[in-house]
Amino acid sequence: MKLIISLFSFVSLFSQGQESDKYLLSKHSVGGLEIGQSVDYLYSLYGKGNTRLIDLYLEAFYSPAIEVRYNGELAFLAELNCNEIYRISVKNPSFKTKEGIHVGSDYGELKSKYTINSIQRGEGNLYVVIEDLAMSFQLDTVQLLDKGVDIDRNVSLDDLPDDIGITSILIR
After folding, report:
1. 3: buried, middle or exposed (CB in 10 Å: 19+, 13-18, 0-12)?
2. pLDDT of residue 19
3. What pTM was estimated for this model as a whole?
4. What mean pLDDT do residues 79-102 have?
């Protein structure tokens, strides 16, 4: 009987570890999906029925991506270069870095956990870049404008209020 209970406990802990790994954001990966892997591999992880091919139409060009839903909610967008994933945009707050940063965290939390290397602009948004993670964190544009930050001029890291929210995370 003790053997059965021990085995059940081990399987339960192993399953919990696998479940939490599905939500881990790390360098070049979201859960078990890594930059450079194929769309077919993405389908094997999440099931084709949980995905949809979309066009992000970035910078006025066709920009194919796979929208991935997990437990019925938008989890992330896997941007494609042919049949290969080249960037992942996380939209769901369930996905977190090792230090607990997620969509919904704020800039102050982010800079207290990681070294921020630079600010970038793209598609009308402002991102802070953490090279050690190969990730960019999109800041809430509406909050920035409400706080008087002019995102159309040169913005420094010191110009950013700590309470600005993160609205998506780009994994490169």
Report:
1. exposed
2. 60
3. 0.86
4. 97
